[in-house]
Amino acid sequence: MPWRYRSTILQVAQNPLVTNVVSPEKLTGTLTLGQFVKAVSSFLGPILAAALAGSALGWKMVFPVYAAVTLLAMLWLALSPVKEELIEKSEITFGRTFSLLKDRYIVLFFIGILVLVGVDVGMGVTFPKLLQERCGLPLEKAGMGNSVYFLARTVGAFLGGLILMKYPTPKFFAASVFLALASLVGMVFSHSLAAVLVFVALFGLGYSNLFAIIFSVSMQRVPEKTNEVSALLIVGVSSAPRGHHRFIRHAAVGRHRFGSRMGISGIPDQVYP
């Protein structure tokens, strides 16, 4: 089975599992802290791979080390006492999953996931280009913008997870959305490097908790169908990057064709898989 399929299955299963080990009032904070752990793991992964590449066996050591870590995680989960909540047992089908879209709130949550993933993909792809055009940075230095963004997201997920353990989710969600939108507007109209980096850091802080909040609220709305809700939202997570990549690709091609008249250059095609 390809890795991307196994990763998707894990994403679908882990969120309903969390509902069985934490109380509902701590669900959002726990999911947010999970995003923090995921971000730290993603940060450490390349560093570990680079360190192992310099070992006696070279880059091949990456595979047994990752296999050992995966096995340890599997054993830890298998030995952890998880009392699964008894819910109505019924076969999970495509029809049952997509029937959730009859609920207009679930539709809005699904659209929200698409937007969040699209914004994240768009930020990672276009922000270095913004630094090049707006601040005159060379390509090798413009990449630091993404480092600032992802660092802010990691810090925001950690702080947000702690805050959401004690404060109401709706108020924190509203504050996060306001911070993200205000920072995005500030970033668009800023021309100095310092201002752009400050605004992108603030945007990352506001954005970092929105995904977990939407996921948590969605599962709490239909607690008897957490598996189906998780599967539906992960469909949005899995499908959104490809669609947004295509959209940005076409936008870049259009800018490249007409950029000489508008003074705008296109996004390099090499950034897409």
Strand segment count: 0
Query: What's the N-to-C terminus distance?
Result: 21 Å
Describe the main β-sheet briefly: none
CATH class: Mainly Alpha
Helix share, percent: over 70%
What's the mean pLDDT score?
Answer: 78
Secondary structure layout plus pairing:
Elements: H1 3-18, H2 27-53, H3 62-79, H4 94-98, H5 104-135, H6 139-142, H7 144-164, H8 169-189, H9 193-207, H10 210-221, H11 226-262
Features of the shown structure:
globular; disordered C terminus; mainly alpha; Growth Hormone, Chain: A; 273 residues; 11 helices
Question: What does this protein look like?
Answer:
By secondary structure, the protein is mostly helical. The chain has one domain (3-79, 101-257): Up-down Bundle (Growth Hormone, Chain: A), CATH 1.20.1250. It has eleven helices and no strands. It has helices at residues 3-18, 27-53, 62-79, 94-98, 104-135, 139-142, 144-164, 169-189, 193-207, 210-221, 226-262. The longest helix has 37 residues, at 226-262. The protein is globular, with a radius of gyration of 21 Å. The chain starts with a helix and ends in an 11-residue tail after the last helix.
Q: Short description, anyone?
A:
The protein is mainly α and 273 residues long.
